[in-house]
Design the sequence.
C-alpha cells in the first residue's frame, strides 16, 4: 500500500508541475485575454486555481474510496483466514 501511495503522490506531483496543467478552455482564455487587455491579471490566476481545484478533487475522492475499499477487503480477508485456521485446527483435534 505504501508503494501505491508513493506512486500516486509522484503522479500527482508531476501533473501539478506540468506547464500544460494550467491550460484553460476557450471561453476562459477569452475572458482572461480581455481582462489582461484592461491591465488586470488576477482573473487569470483565479481561473487557473479554480480549474486545478476542480481537476484534482474527483481524483482525490476516488483515491480515498479506493483506499477504504482496499483496507476493508484486507481486514475481511484476514478474518476469513482466521476462521479457516480455526476450522482446520478443530478438525485436526
Sequence:
Amino acid at each position: 500500500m505504501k508503494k501505491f501511495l508513493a506512486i500516486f503522490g509522484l503522479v500527482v506531483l508531476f501533473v501539478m508541475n506540468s506547464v500544460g496543467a494550467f491550460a484553460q478552455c476557450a471561453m476562459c482564455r477569452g475572458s482572461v485575454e480581455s481582462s489582461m487587455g484592461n491591465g488586470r491579471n488576477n482573473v487569470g490566476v483565479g481561473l487557473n486555481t479554480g480549474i486545478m481545484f476542480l481537476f484534482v478533487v474527483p481524483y482525490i475522492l476516488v483515491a480515498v474510496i479506493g483506499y477504504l475499499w482496499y483496507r476493508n477487503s484486507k481486514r475481511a480477508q484476514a478474518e476469513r483466514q482466521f476462521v479457516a485456521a480455526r476450522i482446520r485446527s478443530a478438525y485436526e483435534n
In short: The chain is about 85% helix and 0% strand. Residues 42-92 form the longest helix (51 residues). The chain has a mean pLDDT of 80.
